[in-house]
Amino acid sequence: MASLSGLCSSFPSLKPNNRIGGELGPVRKDSLAVSTRSNSSFKHSVAREVSADLSKTNDVAGLKQAKQGGLEKDPKALWRRYVDWLYQHKELGLYLDVSRIGFSDEFVSEMEPRFQAAFKAMEELERGAIANPDEGRMVGHYWLRNAKLAPNPFLQVQIDKTLAAVCDFADAVISGKIKPPSPEGRFTQILSVGIGGSALGPQFVAEALAPDNPPLKIRFIDNTDPAGIDHQVAQLGPELASTLVIVISKSGGTPETRNGLLEVQKAFREAGLDFAKQGVAITQENSLLDNTARIEGWVARFPMFDWVGGRTSEMSAGVDIREMLVGASMMDEATRSTVLRKNPAALLALCWYWATDGIGSKDMVVLPYKDSLLLFSRYLQQLVMESLGKEFDLDGNRVNQGISVYGNKGSTDQHAYIQQLREGVHNFFVTFIEVLRDRPPGHDWELEPGVTCGDYLFGMLQGTRSALYANDRESITVTVQEVTPRSVGALIALYERAVGIYASLVNINAYHQPGVEAGKKAAGEVLALQKRVLAVLNEASHFSLPSSPLIQRLDDLQMQFSHFNAHCEDPAESLTLQEIADRCHAPDDIEMIYKIIEHMAANDRALIAEGDCGSPYSLKVFLGECNVDELYA
Ligand SMILES: O=P(O)(O)OC[C@H]1O[C@](O)(CO)[C@@H](O)[C@@H]1O
Q: Its pathway (predicted)?
């Protein structure tokens, strides 16, 4: 077996570094506000080629006027507005109601040129333009549901081949043709390891579409929390032997995913199992994960494409997706319309722009009234916030864009935070997701005369929508007939496109995530500092380190340590935080050193000789016995 630790030790550095655009001077926040806030010129150009034209007409007067006028309350007028704006996709059985968002006709007309520019930008994106300029990448998740749209035959073949391979593999696993070495002879569980877009999509879809008795149960490791990982492995118990482990990472270099993999591989070793016989990698070709899987001979490898972002990768290899792809493709078709009223994604973008003043001034609260759609809000949180939360626009202006997204599910939320939504701080708009079919046919019964359990759920949704609107809280309602692979695919595609259009409206790159890199880099620095702290403490213990990193067995080290202590005239010296910081040549990092010590002490890897963590100045620390080998990790 190839040395995994060797391969994996360079994992973190493999993530592509995203660049942040040019040097900019400070820009006053209020100068960026869209027309409602001031009459200053509108700073978000829609697309480069039209930005000059638009900047002349950038006072969105309708927005200001209509907002001052308040929301329509006359029931007859509201009903007319409802019917007038109702969008229906007949074949998909999907409706979009935007009547409870208060945009005016003037606002819609003023936004029209911006929408036309956004449609054009989306069209170019679908044709293979470099829509992610910072990373010089095409953005092709739309091709995944219709390979014919891909800009060249090579990509078309790649997409079709991958889809066929995924479906064949899934069939072979379910039928037992591909099986684990265990005596059960069949995979019974899936353990999916990934984070962000490499977890949220599969989690959402698995939850939304889970049958009552799935052929394989699925669990997720989506963090580097050791206790969380242990819990998942413990829950598998002896079924680890019949677990298919799917490691998903587009870059193949995300540290949390790498750690999840290493932890799971350790569990396999301890159970006397051969991980390679049960591991699957979904990643970019030639990534470190891909190479690891290839060299170690894992069961299967499937590609993730360079031109598909993690958060829009739900339709790439990973689940049985043909029906989802059909739903997504039908929605893609509908959302290519350049007529605003006929394009549900554009209608959503319009509502978002109106409700948040085009600057994210209000949060998007997502309330699916269906348990199986619980994770839709978390899924949208990443899709929207990672795509729209940007510091700079495409012209390099500092804009600090974004829309905050949160939510849980109805009517559960009614017993949690709806109180604040109705009466408290008015900093949000709501999106209700309604599912018309309560439960499969033949299972319904009346809890009380004329009323089923599902009627209650329906009543709660409608009641909340009305009660919020009565208090000037705006809402959108998306309605689907049922939660099926097709409708889930359509919902995902609807929001992917809405995000793309909205990004064009506010002139930002929706397809990169430079901000995430800062936290990752800082995390790497913390770990590097921890190694220096360990080295200093180790030196203070006068413990001579083994010369070769190959000598890593804990027993050996402990023997040497005890032997040394027994013969040592000058036992381990305990150090204050200041002394550690000085010896690390990092006096300015004393707070971080304190946090490192606190964490190591809580995990028995550093020992506190004097004081306690509540009084940092009183602390004196020396090294625990078990951590010398960490220096070589
Ligand atoms: O699939 P990967 O490369 O492991 O990345 C996981 C997640 O990390 C991010 O890159 C953010 O760091 C997301 O965009 C992505 O979904």
A: Carbohydrate degradation; glycolysis; D-glyceraldehyde 3-phosphate and glycerone phosphate from D-glucose: step 2/4
